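Project channel, design review

CF: Before we commit to the Micromonospora lupini str. Lupac 08 constructs, I'd like one complete example in the thread so the newer folks can see what an input/output pair looks like. Taking Divalent metal cation transporter MntH.
RD: sounds good, go ahead.
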Amino acid sequence: MVTNELTTPTATPLQVARARGRVRGRLILLGPAFVAAVAYVDPGNFATNSAAGARYGYLLVWVVVVANLMAMLVQTLTAKLGLATGRSLPELCRERLPRPVNRMMWVQAELVAMATDLAEVIGGAVALYLLFGIPLLPGGLIIGGAAFVVLALRSRGFRAFEIAIAVLLGVIVLAFAANLLAAGSDPGSAMAGLVPRLQGTDSVLLAAGILGATVMPHVIYVHSALTRDRIPATDDAERRTLFRGQRTDVLLALTAAGAVNLAMLLIAAASFRGGGPVGADSLEGVHAGLGQSIGTAAAFGFAVALLVSGLASTSVGTYAGEVIMQGFLRRRVPLLLRRLVTLVPALVVLAIGLDPTRALVLSQVILSFGIPFALIPVVAFTRRRDLMGNLVNHPLTTAAAALVAVLVVALNAFLLWQVVAG
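CF: and here is what came back for Divalent metal cation transporter MntH:
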């Protein structure tokens, strides 16, 4: 007997996702940028933005806004790179760059990872001290270990990890929204702060710190891996659909992160500028000052947001370290060993008693020096049609991204000259 079998084409992963319904089909495209966005509101941002508001009032509002717009552009390009090539940025660097250059890129990326962990662990440790009186060194150990709990969600699939990180980001947004409403602000002065200007070398240092805390090198690496690993595209039409989803993802996530960063500065400016308590440009001083000027609830909300930020961002940072090692060297290191290597500098800072806020601000300056090493390859790769196909950059997009890279390099060169000149 001869039978004719009708075969039904197998649905693609994107078709399966969209078959879940109009709303769920769109929501499934969101998530990677929210993981990246947590790094944009890590404890380093608390330190730099609060210090900027406490010292200079609304002067550096424009830096926060410009840095966030730059971050949107950078993360869009990074997400597109992973989607179009099926490779993370470190993998492309290993495949496309000379071996000595690739090794140099890996070394600086590891230093960036250490500076990132420094900010996240110290910030979380300070939060535990403010909330429960736990000494800084044990607090740092607790934060470092707690990251494994969040990272364990990755074993249940990418959605569980993304949702957990998005929820933690939501807690931070709500805490600062409530504190901003309670603190109030001067709309006229805030609008005047949109006019670009600086006041002396210290304001330049803080501006570089804000930039380093907002445009984060390690999530430039990790975002490409997040989009690479998510929903594979089978043709150009699906790539365009996925990229539209990623643009929406970046817009929503980075708008939320930018609002938090701006709220940090506005709260400090409204509460402390020209009359705040002594030490209001430190995390402990901000916590105490909020309690005095707004109320105990505001101080509690600040500390909770700082704790959540440290926990979420150190989890993302550990994942980024894994992407960096695997991509640049094609090596896998046990997660525990990887965690210990990046954790040590933070624990040393806590053990020897260095000022936590000063260490946080300086860590963000280190991060700003790492931005060009991640950003320039992104710009170079995303302008190549042989790599990107129909998702290749428009010439205006490449020009804008190149301008961002030039500005970052120029700012870092100025800072280096200031240090050398004393």
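RD: helpful, thanks. Residues 352 and 361 are 17 Å apart (CA to CA).
CF: The chain is about 80% helix and 0% strand.
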